[in-house]
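4.2 Preliminary Data

To establish feasibility before requesting continued support, the project team ran the inverse folding procedure on a target of 63 residues. The structure was first converted into the token representation described in Section 3, and no sequence information of any kind was made available to the design step. The complete token record follows.
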């Protein structure tokens, strides 16, 4: 999957009546490769086991 990143080589084609504010611009979009991650789905048993492990770690670090 590609993600469009930044505008590069920006050129002002038209400006507003004040001569400062750009009305139309052209440029080149840079792109980069990205990957998507699937959401982690846990069963109730896995969620309970993870909770127990975290609880045990918290108890040990509190001592």
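Position-by-position output of the design step:
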């Amino acid at each position: 999957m590609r993600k469009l990143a930044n505008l590069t080589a920006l050129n002002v084609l038209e400006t507003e009546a004040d001569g400062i504010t750009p009305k139309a611009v052209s440029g080149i979009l840079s792109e980069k490769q990205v990957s998507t991650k699937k959401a982690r789905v846990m069963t109730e048993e896995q969620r309970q086991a993870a909770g127990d492990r975290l609880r045990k770690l918290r108890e040990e670090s509190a001592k």
